[in-house]
Design brief:
single chain; 92 residues; mainly alpha; 0% strand; globular
């Protein structure tokens, strides 16, 4: 199953609505190795790097992601879905 499908099934969020405008990029120094906009693009490309990103595990980024997408994509839900998938793969 692709990362996009996993995120959609887990969170109800379809990252396909992302238009790569990068308005969602938040500034959380020291907490991010991949900006949120790029992380969404990695999901769309089904790139496993999205599951190993430091950005994914930062609670500060999770908080900053609230309302960051101006097109209504719930980036907090996306991040939590990715965390769940990463945990599932690690334990599985």
């Amino acid at each position: 199953m692709t990362l996009r499908r996993i995120v959609k099934n887990t969170s109800g969020q379809d990252v396909f609505v992302c238009q790569a405008c990068y308005d969602c990029d938040v500034d959380v120094p020291g907490e991010m190795d991949i900006p949120l906009g790029i992380l969404v693009q990695l999901i769309l490309q089904d790139d496993e790097e999205a599951l190993q990103s430091r950005t994914l595990w930062s609670d500060a980024v999770l908080d900053a992601a609230r309302g960051a997408c101006k097109r209504g994509l719930d980036l907090q839900a996306v991040l939590l879905a990715l965390r769940d998938e990463s945990n599932r793969r690690t334990k599985g």
